[in-house]
Amino acid sequence: MTKILDFCTERGPFSIELLDNQFVAQWLEHFLKMSQKYHTTIRPTQWPYVMPDSNSKNDYIDQVLAAIQLINSFNFVVPLPETVTREQLACLDLSTQQILNRLHRYVVVAAETRNRWLLNQEPSYEWVPYDVEEFNYAVNLLNQNIHNLEQCVNTPHKDKFHGVWKSIEILFDASKYNDVNIYFDDVDVAISDDMFPHLCLNGYDVWIKKDLLGKDYITAFVDHDSPTEFDVRPPTMYSGAIHINQNSGKDDIYNSSEFKTWLGNAPRNYHGNYPLGNIIGNKQNAIDCKTVEFIGQRDSGNTEK
Q: Domains of the chain (ranges plus CATH)?
């Protein structure tokens, strides 16, 4: 039975009609649990995005360097494989992005292996248990600060497609910390590989918010990263958060000659995301709103909310 999710905002209500498949049923069960436990917020997104020149870039550079210094201060891991300078980060061009790509991959490898920074090498430090919070915090802090600084970095692909994809995201306030987004243990749910048939490139309004350690293909394209890297992949988890497209900007990127050249062929569903369904009424109320509240679910055909 097809389900409908009803929401209200300060602009009025809107509704999402969900797809009727195994993945969405699994996601919906988690979404309902999250809705009972965590507060929802909404934010507009414009992607890819490069901030206008501002003092924020200096703060972001400071934060990346501080996170690196924190990791390198630990006595239970070896330092990161390369030294990064302020001058390198301050270029804010493709050379900076390539450094950030390498830093990002170090933290992905460390978070997944717990005993090295480079995937194709022997362990370089003792395995770090998953409950060592200072390690988890520092690795995620560097990861998040990398993404913050990337907002100031120009690349050819960012410049070509700047701001073309507009959307909104409905999120849950479920982080353990104020300065870095590390979810509580009950938030992330791993997506098994047998859900790959439900991946899709386009055709729907509503998708899961991309939650993954690593990069999805469209992000790796903008970052001039390699599509062959092990951590460039479809979303590996969901948090219950929702992504709503406002326009066809994502399709413009997928259909571009630049994306096809970067990927090496035409993209297929595997290179996309997991759709949830479509907005069936009052989409304008979800756009530019400042507050959102989940009201409830109902079966399609049932008009009671």
A: 3-49+167-299 (2.40.100), 56-153 (no CATH)
